[in-house]
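Deliverable D5.2: sample structural annotation.
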Amino acid sequence: MNATLSTRQTRLVAMLVLVVVAVGGYLVVTKNRATTQTARTTASTTPAVTNHATTTPTPSKTHTTRPVTLHTHGLPVPVARALQKHSVVVVSVTDPQGADQNFTRSEAQAGANEMKAGYVNIDVFHQRPGTAILRKLGVVDTPEILVVKRSGAVTAQFKGFVDRDVVAQAVADAR
């Protein structure tokens, strides 16, 4: 059985849709006219008695808000948000499928927590944050640990495995 429509069948379907839309439009327009005419006739034959309620209008309150601009310094947005809260952020650029990379990620996070610094993990398979890091630093091998200051400057860059003590010392040096 052929699942595609021929040109003749497509024309027939288009004509059918056009007819349905035209009939629907006609019914909407004529129904609107009928209700308008009956409203006019009832308004002229029946006296209208209305009680006016007195209300005091409340002044409208206008709130002027400016959109907050986020200065990313060429870094991914999660890193820029972390830099708003912390003066130094540890960024772990990893591939989530590597077994050793999970260990590297946990050590970097432990070093950041020890020094009360921010921590952001960037998955290289997510296009947007990974591209921002590549533009900022060039080609990056995974795993890679970066220590970033609020100005956007990368103060330390470690390729491969780094333990928590090295990360903590790099954060202390960055401050």
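Annotation notes: The two ends are 72 Å apart (CA to CA). The first strand starts at residue 88 and ends at 94.
The annotation will be released with the project's public dataset once the embargo ends.
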